[in-house]
Structures are given as structure tokens and as C-alpha cells.
TrEMBL record:
Keywords: Aminoacyl-tRNA synthetase, ATP-binding, Cytoplasm, Ligase, Metal-binding, Nucleotide-binding, Protein biosynthesis, Zinc. NCBIfam families: cysS. Residues 33-469 form the tRNA synthetases class I catalytic domain. Its cofactor is Zn(2+). It holds the Pfam family DALR_2. Belongs to the class-I aminoacyl-tRNA synthetase family. One of its GO terms (molecular function) is cysteine-tRNA ligase activity. Residues 714-744 are annotated as: Disordered. Residues 523-579 form the Cysteinyl-tRNA synthetase class Ia DALR domain. It comes from Lentinus brumalis. This is cysteine--tRNA ligase.
Length: 775
């Protein structure tokens, strides 16, 4: 019988691998992520409505979505198809484009400051106070028609009361913005009136008035002339400009471009067909050229449910109206919750042909059509900011499920949390936002990304100065120092060459660090599987770095360079995976923080400052060596100090002298090195000053002591050195024999003066010697 292999049993898994779970807004729980088609993931992300500068709220949303996308693609290795839209036609875009156009036209048409122009701005201001500012005021304080100017000073005084402002903000969250715009306009009006009285009527003065009051004036101009704006390129050019600015900002933030980008204006025919399909399925109806979604019919259907994300907001009219836009006409709807699928265009609005007449898409239908065009009747992930959950995302799902006749258009809905800055929520509509351009002048893209990584993606982010200068700066410094030290160790080991290792066993310290690496890798995966828990994942990396630092600093340890490199490379790989830097996978560190639009590196520009420093140092050493001076060694050491303390500091290179005579090289921001050098100099100067002061004090003390010997001992007991009549007679050396009454000095008194005379004789001799030295 032929020999056979022994039966084999599969190994028993001691610790099961964690599965990825996502916090799903559809369940408000963490649910296991199961893509519908193998490892292929269909992911749609709501893009921006492009009508103004990108701000920190955009950074919070799109950087966070980029982090999650990188985790899915670069860590979990899913094959993600990431689609994002650009909303390039919308009520906000139409209004902003018209306002800009009408203000520009007024500026070009105005050649002088005139009473008519001032009156035009005054009328706009009155209308603005009544329609905008008045919404936030209590009814008892709203100015009566015709009394706006007289009532304003009292309102300005009340505005200083924080409690009063807060109460008005409860009535209208835009109250403070409207009040500030009205106040600025009124100040401009008064200034213009003074200029008119002084017969100052130049065009630049008129333009200053228009610019200062444009927020108020634009509304009045739009009400009067908005319907005359017929050039639709005005709307497209505004959107195109801000789309370009948005992507420029995203690349500066190291946010990857979407795999597929869609624009609403490129999908209008598909939108018309989609709306027709919804009507055909019984969930849409037409009113005066507009088409609305029938939310009650949809909610009554057996397989459908309206407002899956936030059903408690079904009757929130404020949110529903905000979702419809400022230009919407809502008369004729069957229910206040019904929303526009197609809007009949009014004069001054762009339009496209449709079976219901000229019109334009409703806001919510846009994403449904574009996502369906790419993914069909189902997608794995839909993402966006939490402020879009209702009504936008709920309406998206309802109309998409109505069109496709499906139960679930989206499997996982993930929403990023709000951004608060120093405790206050940011809003573009409230004009209290910080632009991305402004924030990148203060912090780097890496620091901003670290700030978002340290907080959960779906929670509210509190962005503050203390967060950036404290935790974020501390994390960045800790990783920088770790990578710098490891690189220095590797360079030193490479310079010394391979060593014969006499070890024949795995040292305990190495075993512990190896175990820590494996445990950290498992903990890191567990953290990311726990609904992308990046704060915990970053803490895992920080803890591993701390353990490695302990291993490196252990006294008498024989460092295993290969193990340290493995740790450093893995930590660097994970940081780069989060988008914190660029570099090769074999590189130690998180790589360079290069901007996305940075081209090839100019080697001459980068290297020449360092090469000039090296060349200057070499020239100095050669000169001293050739001269063969007595102080050559001392002078060469001085040159070395100059390179370290002066020449390399502006280049951001720190040389840290070690006990073994070899310097540890670090790359540090030049400003930090200059600050540290100046502080060190200041400390040295203060120490030298203290030393000089002590020497001078000692000198003055010695002079004071020597000055006591100025009087010869023969004159010590004679006037004026003692009061007249103190002594009656003296011997030949000036030692007193009798007191002032002629009585012989007692034995003790005679002994005392003799002792003082002897001491003075010594002092006088020292004084004379010092005086001789001075001469």
C-alpha cells in the first residue's frame, strides 16, 4: 500500500479579524459594510453649489470625505468609484449672478455722485430695514413706515446688548448679518450726503457709496431690474469661476479629484426624462409649468416611506422652504411638504425646454438624476454634510425610489458633522465664514487634516486656536522628531557599515517592540473598522512611536535598526494613507507636504543655498590651514560653530552636537531655529551681564575695603579722624596714651587702640600698594 499524507485540519482562528462597520444615518447605528458587488463600491458624494469662496465648512466636509475615501481605497483596498457633482444652476447662483451683474452695470453707468443716487440708496435702505432687519426685531421695536431713519440710533444702541441680539437671532438667524449690512449702508449714505453738501461729486465717491451699500442695494436693483437679465452666460460664467476656485482650494488641501465629475447643466435632458418617469409612476404632478413631487402619495405607497433619514422633520416648514430656494413659487401644491422637481422659469432666470414649458431643474432632482445616470437604481454609499440630511437627501431618496420603483436607492448614508469655530457654527449664508485661502495662510494643509483626524468624522468639530497650537502641533512635532531620529540612526548605521552581530537570541526589548508593532497594527485596523475611528487610530500610532522612543533610549541597548525601520515605515505609510504627505512606500516619514499643482522640483533652487554654505565653510577651513597660524585649530572650531549657529539656521537645518563627536542633523522650520538661537543668545547675554555685574560688585567691595586704609595709622586717632578731645596725648607712632581729660588709658582701652593701630597699619600698606599699582 502506497504511503499517504497525514490528515490535515484547518487552524482554529484565535482572534477573528474585525469587520468594517459604518455609522449609517439610515439606521443611526454602526452596521456592517457589505458592498453589493464584490469589492466594487459605488459612492456618490454631494458636491458644492458654486457661487462664492470655499470656506472652512467645505474643508471640514471634503477633507473628511477624502480621508474616508482614502481609508476605503488605500487601506481596505476596495475598488471605489467615487462620483461627485457640481451644482452649477440654483437659486443662490441665479441671485448672486444677477446681483453682481446689476451692481457692475450701476457702477459702469454712474459717472458722478448725485442726489438721485443717494436717494436711490436711501430708498433701498428703507426697504431693507423693513424686509430684512425687521424680521429679527420684536414687533414693538420694528420701525413704523417712514420712521426708519429716526428709529435707527436707538436700535444701534440696543445692538450693543448681547442678550437683545441673541433674542433677535432666535427670531432670525441672519439678523446680525442684516443689521450690520444696514448700518454700514446708512453710514455710507450719511458720508455721501456730507460730500454732496461740500460739492464733492466725483465718480470715485459715487462708486464708494455703491460698493459700501451693495448688499442692500443689490436687493432693490434685483427687484426692479432682475427680470431684465436675459444673458444666461452670466449665470454659467459665475458658476464656472467659483468651480475653478473650489477645485484649486481642494487641491491645496490635498483632496483627491473625484473619479467622475458631473454638472447639472450637462444633465438637463436626463432630468426632464427622469421627471416624466416620476409623473408616470404616479408620484408627480404639474402646476403652472412647474412639477412637484407628491410626498403624501409616495408615503402612502406600500413599499415606500418618505423622510427615511429624519422623519421627525416631515412637517418642518422652515427646512422645507429653505430647501426650495428663494426664487420658488409654492402656490398650487397639494401639500406644504411637496417639493419642486421642475421649476417654471420666470423672466431673469435661465431656462431649458420641457413638456411643461421653459423651466429649470429643482435642487433635489439634480443629484438623483446624475447619480442614477452613473450607478443605476442602487448605490453602496451616499455622503454629504449633516445639514443636507433633510430635506435634500430625504427628497433625493424619495424621488429616486419613486422613479426606479425600488425600496432602497442608497444602502449606506454617511454624514459629516458640523464645523464650529471657537464655539460658533459657520455659515456662508450668514457671512461668518473663514475662507480656505485665509486659513491656509495660518496653518498648513497637513495641520488642518490632522485637526479633522483627531475628531470623529460624524461628530461636531470644534475648531479653535487652542486645538491647532496644542494637540495638533504636538502630534506633528512628535512624529517629526521620531522620523528625524530614525533617519539619523539609519544614516549613521549606513556610514559605519555592517557589523558582525554576536547575538544568538532575540533580545527581550526587541521582542517587546515587535509585539507592540503587531498589536498596534491590529488595534489600528480595529479602530478603522469601528466606523473609521480616526482619533483612536492616530492614538495607536502615537503610542507605538512612544514605545519605540523608549526602546531607542534604553541604556546599554543594542538597537536593532531593521526593526526600528519597520516601525517607522509602517507609521509613515499609515500617515500617508490618511493624506498627510507624499513619498515612496520605502521612505521613512510621512513624506513631503507638496501641493497638488506643484511641478518638478528645481534642483538648483533647492540645493544652491546649502551648497553655498558648504563652499563658504570649505573656503574658510582651507584659508586657515594654508596660513598655518598658531590658533588655526581654535579658529576652525569657531567656523564650525558659525556654520551651526548662523549659516544653517535660515536654511532650517539644526546640528545637535552629540557626546560621540557626531552631530545629529534635523530639518526644522527656520523661524523656530531663529527663535531658539535668539533665545539662547539672550540667555547667554543675560548670564554674561550677571557675571559682569558680580565682578563689578566685587571690585567695588574691594575698593571700599582699600579706601579704609587711606588714613595712615599715625593719624588714625587724631582729629579729624576722631572727635576733638577724644585723646589727650600720643606716642611717636600716634598711639593714644591718655584720654581727653589727661588720664592714662586703661589697660583694656590701650590694648584695643593698639590692636586697631596694627590693623590700620596693614590696611594702609595695602592701600599704598594698590595706589602704586594704579599709577
Amino acid at each position: 500500500m502506497a504511503a499517504q499524507q497525514q490528515p490535515w485540519s484547518p487552524p482554529a482562528q484565535k482572534a477573528p479579524e474585525p469587520v468594517l462597520k459604518l455609522y449609517n444615518s439610515l439606521t443611526r447605528t454602526k452596521t456592517e459594510f457589505v458592498p453589493t458587488t464584490g469589492r466594487h463600491v459605488k459612492w456618490y458624494n454631494c458636491g458644492p453649489t458654486v457661487y462664492d469662496s470655499s470656506h472652512m465648512g467645505h474643508a471640514r466636509n471634503y477633507v473628511t470625505q477624502d480621508i474616508l475615501r482614502r481609508i476605503m481605497t488605500d487601506y481596505f483596498r476596495y475598488d471605489v468609484h467615487f462620483v461627485m457633482n457640481i451644482t452649477d444652476i440654483d437659486d443662490k447662483i441665479i441671485l448672486r449672478a444677477r446681483h453682481n451683474h446689476l451692481i457692475s452695470k450701476l457702477l459702469s453707468d454712474t459717472t458722478a455722485l448725485t442726489p438721485a443716487l443717494v436717494e436711490q440708496v436711501r430708498a433701498a435702505w428703507v426697504s431693507y430695514v423693513q424686509s430684512k432687519v425687521g424680521k429679527g426685531l420684536p414687533e414693538s421695536e420694528r420701525p413704523a413706515a417712514g420712521s426708519e431713519f429716526e428709529a435707527w440710533p436707538a436700535l444701534v444702541e440696543r445692538f450693543g446688548d448681547r442678550a437683545w441680539r441673541q433674542a433677535n437671532l432666535q427670531r432670525d438667524e441672519k439678523f446680525e448679518m442684516h443689521f450690520n449690512a444696514a448700518n454700514a449702508t446708512l453710514n455710507a449714505i450719511r458720508h455721501a450726503e456730507q460730500q454732496l453738501q461740500a460739492s464733492q461729486t466725483g465718480a470715485e465717491l459715487a462708486h464708494t457709496l455703491i460698493d459700501a451699500s451693495k448688499d442692500v442695494l443689490a436687493l432693490a436693483l434685483d427687484k426692479q431690474f432682475g427680470s431684465t437679465v436675459s444673458d444666461h452666460t452670466i449665470f454659467r460664467s459665475l458658476a464656472a469661476f467659483w468651480e475653478g476656485e473650489f477645485f484649486r482650494d481642494m487641491r491645496r488641501l490635498r483632496v483627491r479629484d473625484p473619479d467622475t465629475l458631473t454638472r447639472v447643466t450637462e444633465y438637463v435632458p436626463e432630468i426632464v426624462s427622469f421627471v416624466e418617469g416620476i409623473i408616470k409612476n404616479g408620484y408627480g404632478y404639474e402646476v403652472d409649468g412647474s412639477v412637484y413631487f407628491d410626498t403624501r402619495a409616495f408615503d402612502r405607497a406600500e413599499d415606500h416611506s418618505y423622510a427615511k433619514l429624519e422623519p421627525w422633520n416631515k412637517g418642518n416648514l422652515e427646512l422645507l422652504e429653505d430647501g426650495e430656494g428663494a426664487l420658488s413659487v409654492t402656490t398650487g401644491r397639494r401639500s406644504p411638504a411637496d417639493f419642486a422637481l421642475w421649476k417654471a422659469s420666470k423672466p431673469g432666470e435661465p431656462s431649458w425646454p420641457s413638456p411643461w414649458g421653459p423651466g429649470r431643474p429643482g435642487w433635489h432632482i439634480e443629484c438623483s438624476v446624475m447619480a442614477s445616470a452613473i450607478f443605476g437604481d442602487n448605490m453602496d454609499i451616499h455622503s454629504g454634510g449633516i445639514d443636507l440630511a433633510f430635506p435634500h437627501h430625504d427628497n433625493e431618496m424619495a424621488q429616486s425610489e419613486a422613479y426606479h420603483n425600488c425600496r432602497a436607492w442608497v444602502n449606506y448614508f454617511i454624514h459629516t458633522g458640523h464645523l464650529h469655530i471657537e464655539g460658533l457654527k459657520m455659515s456662508k449664508s450668514l457671512k461668518n465664514f473663514i475662507t480656505i485661502d485665509e486659513i491656509l495662510q495660518k496653518y498648513t494643509a497637513r495641520q488642518l487634516r490632522l485637526a479633522f483626524l483627531t475628531q470623529l468624522w460624524n461628530s461636531k468639530v470644534d475648531f479653535s486656536e487652542s486645538l491647532m497650537t496644542g494637540e495638533v502641533r504636538g502630534i506633528e512635532t512628535a512624529f517629526n522628531n521620531f522620523f528625524t531620529n530614525v533617519k539619523a540612526l539609519v544614516s549613521q548605521a549606513e556610514a559605519e557599515g555592517p557589523k558582525l552581530d554576536s547575538k544568538n537570541h532575540f533580545q527581550q526589548a526587541e521582542r517587546e517592540l515587535t509585539d507592540s508593532l503587531h498589536a498596534s497594527q491590529a488595534a489600528f485596523r480595529a479602530a478603522l473598522c469601528d466606523s473609521f475611528n480616526t482619533p483612536e487610530a492616530v492614538n495607536v500610532l502615537r503610542d507605538l512611536v512612544s514605545r519605540t522612543n523608549v526602546y531607542l533610549k534604553a541604556p546599554g541597548s543594542n538597537v536593532e535598526i531593521g526593526l526600528v525601520q519597520r516601525v517607522a515605515r509602517w507609521v509613515g505609510d499609515m500617515l500617508r494613507m490618511f493624506g498627510l504627505g507624499e513619498g515612496e512606500s520605502t521612505e521613512i516619514g510621512w513624506g513631503q507636504e507638496r501641493s497638488a499643482d506643484e511641478g518638478g522640483v528645481n534642483r538648483e533652487e533647492v540645493l544652491m543655498p546649502y551648497l553655498r554654505t558648504l563652499s563658504t565653510f570649505r573656503d574658510g577651513v582651507r584659508k586657515l590651514a594654508i596660513a598655518k597660524g598658531d590658533n588655526a585649530l581654535k579658529d576652525i572650531l569657531a567656523l564650525c560653530d558659525k556654520v551651526r549657529d548662523v549659516d544653517l539656521v535660515p536654511l532650517g537645518v539644526a546640528l545637535d552636537d552629540q557626546e560621540d563627536g557626531k552631530a545629529l542633523v534635523k530639518l526644522v522650520p527656520p523661524a523656530e531655529l531663529i527663535k531658539a538661537r535668539d533665545e539662547k543668545r539672550a540667555q547667554a547675554e543675560a548670564k554674561a551681564a550677571r557675571k559682569a555685574a558680580a565682578v563689578e560688585a566685587e571690585r567695588q567691595k574691594r575698593i571700599a575695603a582699600l579706601e579704609k586704609g587711606r588714613v595712615p595709622p599715625q593719624e588714625l586717632f587724631r582729629p579729624p579722624n576722631v572727635p576733638e578731645g577724644t585723646y589727650g596725648s600720643w606716642d611717636e607712632n600716634g598711639v593714644p596714651l591718655t584720654d581727653g581729660e589727661g588720664k592714662e588709658l586703661s589697660k583694656s582701652a590701650a590694648k584695643k587702640v593698639a590692636k586697631e593701630w596694627t590693623l590700620q597699619k596693614k590696611r594702609h600698606e595695602e592701600f599704598l600698594e594698590w595706589q602704586k599699582q594704579q599709577q
